[in-house]
Structures are given as C-alpha cells and as structure tokens.
Amino acid sequence: MDAQTLAYYQTAGHKLAGRYESVRSTVAQYFQVAFPAGCRVLDVGTGSGRDLAELLAAGYDSYGVEPCAQLRETAVQYHPELAQRLVESALPNLGAPFGGEFDGVLCSAVLMHLAEADLLDAAFALRSVLRRGGRLMISLPSARADVDAGERDPDGRLFKAYPAEYLQLLFERLGFQLIGRWETEDALGRVGTAWYTLLFQLAAAGPLRPVDQIEGILNRDRKVATYKLALFRALAEMATQEARCATWRPDGTVGVPLAGIAERWLLYYWPIFASTEFIPQSQSEGAGGKPVLFRAALTQLIGHFAGQGTHSGLSAWHLATARGHLPADVLQARSEALGKIQQAIKDGPVSHSGGSLDSGLVFKYDQQARQVVMAADLWRELTLLGHWIVDAVVIRWAALTERFSRRQTILSGDVLPLLLARPEPERTTAMARQIFLEQGVERCAWTLRPITARQFAVDHVIPFALWGNNDLWNLLPAHPQANSDKSDKLPAAALLQERRVEIVRNWELLRDALPASFDGHAERLLGRRVGGTQPWQADLFDAMRQSVELTAVQRGVERWNPKLA
Questions:
Q1: CA 147 to chain CA mean position, Å
Q2: Is residue 565 part of a domain?
Q3: pLDDT tens digits, residue range 364-418?
Q4: What tens digit of pLDDT does each residue of 106-151 get?
Q5: CB–CB of 507/518 below 8 Å?
Q6: Which of these, 104, 357, 375, 476, could form a disulfide with 35 (CB 3.0-4.6 Å)?
Q7: What is the pTM of this model?
Q8: Which CATH number characterizes residue 135's domain?
Q9: Are residues 169 and 102 in the same domain?
Q10: What residues make up the domain containing 461?
Q11: Domain final residue, candidates 363, 393, 419
Q12: Which of 180, 132, 197 is nearest to 33 (CA)?
C-alpha cells in the first residue's frame, strides 16, 4: 500500500472505522451471488471489519488481512468474533495468510491505494491465494470528486483512477474471467463519488501457462545478479514497442534480436554504473568480489561522456548517437561494451531463466540467427502484459540491488530514479526542431497552422511519458498551442489518416538530414532493414499507426483531435 495513505490510516483509523460502521457496505448485497454458500473467503483490506463480519454472519468461513494496526484493533472492538480471524498483511506482498487456498477473495476499496507499478504484483498476489475455479470480487471508485491532479484526496490518500476495463484486461491476462459487474452509489452519500464492483472467476487448473512462467521467474527463480530482471524488462519493452522485431518461426517459437536487447541493457545500466556511489548489481559485487561481466567496458564508454549533462552523459550519448557523430574511439568502446553485454545475456539469464519451474528453462540462444528464442505464447504474453511487467520489474530490481548492498549504503529508493532515468527529450527535440527550421517547415503537422521560428515546438506522436521514445519517426513539428493541447494524449485515428501525407513529408526531411539514424530508428519499429530503393514510407506509417492504436487500447490513453480540442 502507498506509504502516505497507510500513515493516514494509522492515525485516523478509529474515526474512519466509526464512519464505515454507520452504513452497510454496498458490496455485501452481492456476497451470496459471488461466493458459494459456506466456502472459505479472504477479505483483503478488512478496514473496520464490517464486510468480514457480514461474511462470517452469512455462514462463510471468512478471514481477513489489514495492514493498519489501528484499524485491526478497532475491527475487533466492533466485532469480537474476528479476533482469531484477522492478521496483518497488505498488497502487493500478501503472502499466504491462513494458509491460502481460498474459494473466494474480497478486495473492496483497496487497489486504488496502490501505485500502478505495484498493480501487477498485487494481481499476482490475489491470484496466488485463490484455488483454481475460485472467485475474486473487486470494488473501486468509478468517480471521486475530491481527488487532486496528483491523485490524492485532501487527507493525502492515494486514489488511482483505474478504469474497470483496464483492470478487467489485467486480470483476464492472468487467467480470470469476468462473470459479473455492478455500479453503485456511495454508501456514505458523498457527492461526486460512485463505485464499480467486478466479479472474476479463476480458470480451472491446467498446464503451466506463459504468465505463470513469467511470475515464477520474477518471484521464485534464484537471482545472483540483476540480469533476469533486465532481460524481462527489455523483452517486455520490445514486445510492446517494437513487436515487429520478432521472428515467428515454424516450430511455434519466436526469436528476438540479441543486439536489440543489449542496446536496452546499455541504457538501463548506464546511470547505475555512472553513479558516484558504487551500486552492486550482483551478489559478488555486493561482497566486494568479481564485478559483473560488462561493468568495465560500459564504464569506459561512459567515461567519454562524463560531465555532459544528467546521468553522466546519458542524454549526450543518445544525442551523439542520433546525429551519427561518434568518433572512432567511442565506436570502439561502444562495440566492446555491447559485446560484453551480449555475452552476459547469453551466458546468464538466457541460459538459466526458469530453473525453478516444472516446465524448465524458457529461453535458448540461436547462434546463427543471433536471436533469443522463446515459445510464441510467452512472447504473446509479454506483448499483452508488457507495461505492467516493466513496472513490476523495476520495483524488484531496486529491491534486489538493496539486498546485494546488504542494506548498508544503498536503498531501493536510491536506485529507482536511476532505473527510471531516460535520455532527456529536450536535446533530441531541439535537434529535430533545428532540422525542420533548416528545411523550411512552416506549418504544424497536426493543425496545419502556420508556425515560425519563434512559435515552433516538436511533438512526440506517442507521448514521451508513455514510451520514453525519442526516435526520429516519433517527432513532428507542431504549433506550441497544439503541442500543449495534445500533451500526453495520443492522436485520434482519424487525425493520423488525415495527416498521413504531412507526417511522411516531415519524416523524409528528417531522413534527408540524418539518414543513418532515421533508418536505424525506423528499422526498430518495422522489424526490417530500411534503405536503398525499397519504399519504406507506407510500411513505417502503418507500423506507427498500429503502435498508436495498440498503446491506446492497452494503456487506456485519451485520444486527441485538434478539431475537438
């Protein structure tokens, strides 16, 4: 649970419990529909004990978990029968309270207090305490009028606005089927507050599914370095952002270029290795032993950009690469670093991921194709769950780093900003802006409104906040007002089609100025080489449009059209 939210409950628990007990729960009316009579039910986030007591009174063998000590004490005061049925625990690290294996789980008014980075782990935790075929009931606000732009109420509690369809997609990917949905008014009568309730059923037992393999590797596989987490982060990002890089094979497997994975590792580890404080990335490093395989080579590359902006030159490195202006010694250092990273990937997580699973190892390396190979179903799962997996991996990575440091000098909170660091978009957009000005661009790609050197912005087609992508195909000239109005929204499908010619024309200008960089960026999205006389414009536009649509569906992002703005 969000720390600030829990802190509030710890101080205001008694007062809040009295308020909750003054009205009947809106979800209680669905208990007999949701859970078979007399079955074993776990209430996650018991609060005042109101729902748990009602379940018990209705004949259910019910138990509860609640992270707030003050609320647990108050729950037992109101409902003494809960004394031996209520323990301390919280999402996303629920564990196995009362031995797990429940027929039903109630999770009412809880998930909105979790950051999105914790959502996948929380969903796994809820699933882990359910028997196959069990029922899961979730209730969350569909509207809340007192939440500010930071998604907090006046008391500082986190209230994430998770749409019902968004959670439905997540839980369906984890093997649940939606079997019920209800909309209710707020039991306390608060103006502007309403609730939705979702009822899921977990699929019956079967062979180990891809999502179980992912969960098993992330949670149970032995980790002596951060390599497995880095591999899954890279694969998840590539699956959601560069899905065409995959080669679908006749034997039911998928191959992903090792070089593309290595390039992402370079960006992940750069801020960590560039830190002025040594941050161990393996058990050995934490004990003062042998460093990870590619630390020395990547550190040498970092040295060429030391002192050039944030994260010891990460943005400067990205800009220099985009411009194609890398001197021979930097190219050599880059080659050596990527070579060591590729060796670490092959010898480490590709050779060992899945060792804790009954199904065995999940990856292999194809030397001839220079690809990491996995089952097609696993790749599909990465494509569908990618952004949740990335969030979960980053949190685990930070915690694992803290453990490697023996919790003496490095804390997970110190590592998170480094793991989230990305090349600054301003430098790349400034470069694109200069190119557009030099090429005589005079109108906004979205609105066709005239723009001048004084009124000239560069917009990310897919917002930087969503993908962190500064590739040249993702940058278009825009009027500052349009850039501001669009913000972190995705362009509407109709708008993309209407501006197809304008978009391609601007791409051609960027490619004329930086052919090698543009082609390299386009190749990542297209999954094939660009160059020579083969036309690329139509294919790139279709790939970009597909990426926009899939991102909109999977992330629930608002669409933008200047005609409606």
A1: 23
A2: no
A3: 999 999 999 999 989 988 988 888 899 889 999 999 999 999 866 788 888 999 9
A4: 999 999 999 887 888 899 899 999 998 899 999 998 877 778 887 8
A5: yes
A6: 104
A7: 0.73
A8: 3.40.50.150
A9: yes
A10: 425-560
A11: 419
A12: 180
